Amino acid sequence: MRFTLKQLTLALIGVLALAGCSSDADSDRFEDQVGVQMFLWNFNSIAQECEYLGDAGIDWVLVSPPQEHIQGEQWWVGYQAVSYQLESQLGTKSEFETMVKTCGDQGVEIYVDAVINHMTGNSEGVGTAGTEYAKYEYGDLYTRADFHACTQTLDSQIADWTSVAQVQECELLNLADLRTEDESVRAKIVGYLQSLVDLGVTGFRIDAAKHIALADMEAIKAKLPATIKYIQEVVPGTPGAEPLDYLGIGDIFGFDLAYQLASIFTQQVAYLPDTSTESPWVTPSNQTVVMVSNHDTERNGQAINYSQPAQFEAATALMLALDYGQPMLYSSFAFDSYDWAPKDENGRMLDAKCAQSSAIYFANHEAGTWLCQHRMNSVNSMIAFRDETSGKPVTNPQTSDSVLSFERGDIGFFAVNVTTVDQSGVEISTGLADGKYLDFISGKEIEILGGVVKTDLVANQAIALIRR
Ligand code: LM2
Ligand code: CA
Q: What is the per-residue pLDDT across 142-191, written as a single tens digit (0 to 9) for each?
């Protein structure tokens, strides 16, 4: 969120009002920040898009893995590291530097997807920076002794996902698993991450974090500046390495909300997502980065993806309307098979371009189209709604067969039709004062009379009202 003059003035008044109280001096709440995963956008394209992102109130961009990786036409080659040189399908080191600077000038920070649990699978050849490699042999970076020789399973692969030992010491997807318990391996990982910090990055997505022992993550973190942020990929389901266990290191991705949003909009059942912190996988609001989908869930059917654009947009609006977690938007390309990505003949990602608004592009699902989900019209207005209602809790949740609604303090109201059926003359009783409200999404005025909001809600339509 970037402060407008008006917001700054309000914030100042707030600070003055609080003077004398022992409130902490923290300016921004964790929940007030909004990020976007620009999946496989190359560095040049991200740099160009950062002006739009900054204006939209987006605080940070998660870029895909920037280190040297195996060559190939599949999108996932970036998750098979060959060295820590910044030369990848996304661009060169100097393009990376330009992106960090250009985005920084727009108030947009950079998070890097850090692949530090493993190197490559079963291939040999030359990486994207020219390094010759084979599995377990990566020039003078790592050799066989730097990798786990997992004894728990015959083929060294993770077989029992409830066994922490297997999940952390055996191979994920046949990928050479680093001995992150060794000082020399840790030093090389730290060197890589520090080099990115030196280039100005704010934080990291820790890829496959639950496959790295907590003690190893702690040791790595201890050698890096304390200001660095971590968002850890801890997919629930392994006792002893659940999201809750990694909170001491930093933040974690909230898969659970993504799954709940998928169930609300695909099963068309209106309910308020359960974000209580009573389970090992629903983590506290101020340490959870929430999302509608990421690059894995959009391909594995666990989350809503662009092929259901109306549901995707409504789920994004609902995520932004809730007071739980720090939202990460998702923006990427259309594909027609799991492996496919829009690349040139040298394996470089093609430039990403957006139309003025998302409308045309979002409707066009031809493989290779950059969908620019972050440009959906309701995204900007919902970020503004989120800013307006910052710190005001969700109250008075109500559900009918088709509509979920709730209030945000005494100024905000959100409702969404979770079904694909148009609803007309919807009436919802609220605790809000009568008067005129602005629907941030449509830009239209809605009047609350006798506490009742009366409106039509077409399929998957949301309204986000703020008192005028
Ligand atoms: C992740 N998070 O913890 C990423 O979000 C996920 O996208 C990564 O898998 C995974 N961890 C490892 O970094 C992706 C992709 C896989 C792909 C791997 C490695 O989802 O499909 O696996 O990257 O590039 C591919 C093949 C797989 C093969 C593997 C090794 O799909 O069949 O396994 O390469 O050759 C035998
Ligand atoms: Ca591991």
A: 999 999 999 999 999 999 999 999 999 999 999 999 999 999 999 999 99
Looking at the whole model, is its pTM more than 0.90? Answer: yes
C-beta of 81 in contact with ligand 1 (< 6 A): no
Ligand 1 within 6 A of CB of 173: yes
Residues 6+ apart with CB under 8 A from 338: 299
22 and 91, same structural domain?
Answer: yes
Based on the fold, state whether residues 338 and 322 are members of the same structural domain. yes
Catalytic residue (one of 87, 146, 207, 407): 207
Give CA–CA dist 261/256, Å, rounded: 9
379 and 408 fall within a common domain: no
> Do both 287 and 432 map to the same domain?
no
Q: For the residues of 123-167, what is the DSSP string, one character each? A: -EEE-TTS-EEETTBBTTTB-GGGB----SSTTSB---TT-HHHH
- Which residue range forms the structural domain that includes residue 403? 394-467
Q: Which residues, 6+ apart, have CB-to-CB distance to 259 below 8 Å?
A: 302, 303
User: Which residue is listed with tokens 């045309």?
Assistant: 360
Burial class (CB within 10 angstroms; exposed 0-12, middle 13-18, buried 19+) of 54: middle
Bridge partners (DSSP) of residue 404 are: 399, 416
